[in-house]
Specification:
The complex is a heterodimer of chains A (about 240) and B (about 300).
Chain A lengths: L4 E14 L2 E7 L9 E5 L9 E4 L2 E2 L3 E7 L3 H7 L6 E8 L10 E6 L6 H8 L2 E7 L6 H7 E8 L6 E2 L2 H4 L7 E5 L2 H14 L3 E4 L15 E4 L2 E4 L6 E3 L8
Parallel strand pairs in A: 8-9, 8-12, 9-10, 10-11, 12-13
Antiparallel strand pairs in A: 1-2, 1-7, 2-6, 3-4, 3-7, 5-6, 13-16, 14-15
Helix pairs in contact in A: 2-3
Chain B lengths: L5 E3 L2 E3 L3 E3 L21 E3 L16 E4 L2 E4 L8 H14 L4 E5 L4 H12 L5 E5 L14 H15 L4 E5 L7 H10 L4 E4 L3 E3 L2 E2 L4 E2 L6 E4 L4 H14 L4 E4 L5 H9 L4 E4 L2 H4 L3 H15 L15
Parallel strand pairs in B: 3-4, 3-16, 4-7, 7-8, 8-9, 9-10, 10-15, 15-16
Antiparallel strand pairs in B: 1-2, 5-6, 6-14, 11-14, 12-13
Helix pairs in contact in B: 2-3, 3-4, 4-5, 5-6, 6-8
Classes of the chains: A alpha/beta (about 240), B alpha/beta (about 300).
């Protein structure tokens, strides 16, 4: 396992890629496997908590995060300019591993964030992205996807509707998904019916990020599990849905 | 060589910086980051007689410079702790303060009894969890607290600390004096504040239990005030807790009369906070030529 540490890194870019969605790039060599995350902060004691963000991409020279400007923390992140300092605590969480050759990655909303790096590391994965409004970063995802499928409310650049309705699990060895609980639950049923294993990356509010405070637990068939430490990746069949 | 050590009753700590209960698990997670035996002590997650699942989510909510939590004492139970977690903590040479919750007066005695002959270094009684709903309170709070401490004292050969609520009915002083009279060895001031947040889109409280516990820098001046008052009036040591995020905060608490401080929410602000506070205190003592904490403890009272 990679050593968990707190590091400060300079911001290279913090580009708006869609209304309220930003791609934050920092300089440095950071260890990370797909679907792991870092706790980020760029402020003092207020708000007290750092913000858990999954890894959008990493190279030997940079690490990047895709986030939606939503609350106080992400509003502060959105103000960062090139040269500003970002504090990163990680890498955290279990991440996911490739199982099989025919892979589908499904993301909805800000849940598309971990799929770029996943597709890059896994190689040759089909990528399904669901957007609320106008789709974005499509050219970026095309670089790493075997086949790219898009859905949105308007149907622009792809199909109309929810990505969980567009996605068909037949023919895949394994499926990996990140997004809202409702989307993940729908995918769980679809994949279960098709007999395709599904791994989900969950999102919860977190305080410590390492499993000490028990602020982010979810119910599973094995009891309460910490999203930050035992997850964020769980087998969909282990999660107790509609909790 | 700078001497940061402090004597709390008959328990000697290498320094006055303690990890607060509920923020540090059983020390295993933070031990991946640094040698946690460098801390003065670690207060465990609150232990109950039987395993507890805690509260359903949401469990966390931020407020300005503060954090509301509604964890609800999720823990493996005292028996599992003694068997599984305590040996690991002792292997790492940690000073272990076992934090204890009882659902009844009798249960406090039972949990403490199960800890009394183990290798823990002290017991910290939690008499004031804002996250356990509908706590049946019989009689007035002072009388009930005295009963809890008496029950724990009877079952406890170890040093006994009592963690006070910052929002006790009537005066904290009356409560603290009763705790002292029952034979507690130290008073920890204080637990989280009973508080709420309301979700304005849902038009209802954020937490399912309505009330949660407020911690963080937002509460620091209030608990500092209680420490100041109680340390003047009590014979037994007072340990300060509440929003301490740096060594300067720790010095304020010591100058207000605290023997030691506990760091809780600040571990989330900076996971290395405890170590940084120890380093800061070391430099402070050096620069000010302070030989022992007695030189400045309670100096703000003069």
């Amino acid at each position: 396992m990679d050593k968990i540490d707190v590091r400060t890194a300079p911001v290279i870019a913090n580009d708006q890629v869609a209304p309220d969605t930003f791609l934050l790039r920092v300089q440095g060599t950071f260890p990370a496997k797909p679907a792991q995350f870092y706790m980020l902060r760029a402020w003092g004691i207020n708000p007290p908590l750092s913000r858990p963000m999954s890894i959008f991409n990493r190279t030997d020279k940079l690490l990047s995060f895709l986030y939606v400007k939503q609350g106080q923390g992400t509003h502060l992140l959105a103000r960062l300019l090139p040269g500003d300092k970002l504090v990163l605590f990680g890498p955290l969480g279990n991440g996911w591993n490739q199982q099989g050759d025919q892979i589908a990655l499904v993301g909805g909303g800000s849940g598309i964030a971990p799929l770029f790096y996943t597709a890059k590391v896994f190689g040759k994965a089909d990528v399904y992205l669901g957007f609320h409004a106008k789709p974005f970063l499509l050219r970026t995802f095309k670089q790493v996807a075997k086949q790219l499928y898009i859905s949105s409310e308007s149907g622009e650049n792809g199909q109309k509707g929810l990505i969980s309705n567009v996605f068909q699990p037949h023919g895949y060895d394994t499926c990996y998904a990140c997004g809202p609980y409702a989307m993940l639950e729908a995918l769980h049923h679809t994949c279960q019916n098709a007999g395709v294993p599904l791994f989900v990356s969950l999102e919860e509010k977190m305080a410590c990020g390492i499993g000490a405070c028990l602020g982010c637990v979810v119910r599973t068939t094995q009891g309460l599990r910490r999203v930050c430490r035992d997850g964020p990746v769980f087998r969909a069949k282990d999660v107790i849905w509609n909790d | 060589m700078i001497d940061l050590s402090v004597q709390i009753g008959n328990l000697a700590l290498r320094n006055p910086v303690i990890a607060a209960s509920g923020t540090f698990g059983f020390g295993q997670e933070y031990s991946q980051l640094y040698d946690t035996s460098r801390l003065g002590a670690i207060c465990t997650k609150g232990l109950t007689l039987h395993p507890q699942q805690g509260n359903p989510g949401p469990r966390l909510w931020e407020t300005p410079c503060g954090l509301l939590n509604s964890i609800g004492l999720q823990n493996p139970g005292v028996t599992s702790f003694v068997k599984e977690d305590l040996p690991k903590m002792k292997e790492m040479r940690l000073v272990v303060i076992a934090n204890v919750w009882g659902n009844t007066v009798k249960e406090y005695g039972q949990v403490v009894g199960k800890l009394s002959n183990t290798s823990i270094d002290a017991v910290e009684i939690n008499i004031s969890c804002p996250n356990i709903p509908d706590q049946p309170i019989t009689g007035n709070q002072v009388a009930r607290t005295a009963k809890v401490v008496r029950e724990a004292r009877k079952a406890c050969k170890k040093p006994l600390w009592v963690k006070l609520s910052p929002t006790s009915e009537g005066s904290s002083l009356q409560l603290a004096r009763a705790i002292q009279a029952e034979g507690a060895n130290a008073i920890c001031v204080a637990n989280t504040f009973r508080a709420i947040a309301i979700d304005i889109t849902k038009r209802k409280p954020v937490f399912r239990n309505i009330f949660a516990g407020l911690s963080g820098p937002a509460i620091k001046p209030i608990t500092l005030g209680i420490v100041y008052e109680l340390s003047l009036a009590l014979e037994i040591p007072v340990i300060g807790i509440g929003g301490i995020t740096n060594w300067q905060d720790a010095v304020e608490f010591i100058m207000a009369g605290a023997y030691a401080v506990q760091i809780g929410t600040a571990n989330f602000i900076d996971p290395f906070c405890g170590i940084k506070v120890i380093k800061g205190l070391t430099t402070f003592m050096e620069n000010q030529s302070i030989e022992s904490w007695e030189d400045i403890r309670g100096c703000a009272h003069q």
